[in-house]
Design a protein that fits this description.
The protein has about 220 residues and is an alpha+beta fold. A hairpin with a 4-residue loop joins strand 4 and strand 5. Helix 4 crosses helix 5. The longest helix is centred in the middle third of the chain and has 23 residues. The radius of gyration is 16 Å and the shape is globular. Pfam families: Fasciclin. Keywords: Signal. InterPro entries: FAS1_dom_sf (IPR036378), FAS1_domain (IPR000782).
Amino acid sequence: MRKISRRLTRSLATALVVAGVVVTSAVATTTQASAHHQPGSRSLATVLAADGDTFDHNWNDYDVLTNAVGAVLAAKPNSPVKVLANGNVPLTAFLPSDRAFRLLAKDLTGKWYKSESALFTGLAGLLGVDTIEAVLLYHVIPGATIDSRTALRSDGATLKTALPGGSIRVDVISKRFRIVRLIDADPNDRNPRLNRCALDINKGNKQIAHGITLVLRPLDI
């Protein structure tokens, strides 16, 4: 995993913008910065790197996600996933926690992994790098900086993802209690909700993220 970590750092540090990645969602232009406050250019890759990628006993952070990004970029250096390293490209990312990946593995394999490292190894072997790449891209909405306030006013909006042909729908269950659900392409499983304790990660920058409770599925798996 140390080797993957070093590759992740190098890949994200040198990544360039992916040409032609655009968004056509209904909320793509709803969060434009005012003339008096230009958004910063700190990338989400920087935020994830600062959080660390060491597997631990905290199932509420993003170690599995960070290592998944590293594994994809190690195998496919030109993957569109590298857009997460370009802080000048506006985007919104939904970040599944380690617990969310643990629930995915339990659903797919029936196995309850006791450690994050075993979970990562199990999912990587089961899904393969191409599927992992597709899943990661399905969690990225390019071209739009959607903060939680905007999300709460976007009930019914369809968001186009960085995965070609992929989309998710916003379902605002309660504005008062800030409960927002994301409807993915898998009709047979539970849909994730925004984690109210992990909203507006990297706020003030062009790239913003929100934690989610389950992994978004780009197809019925």
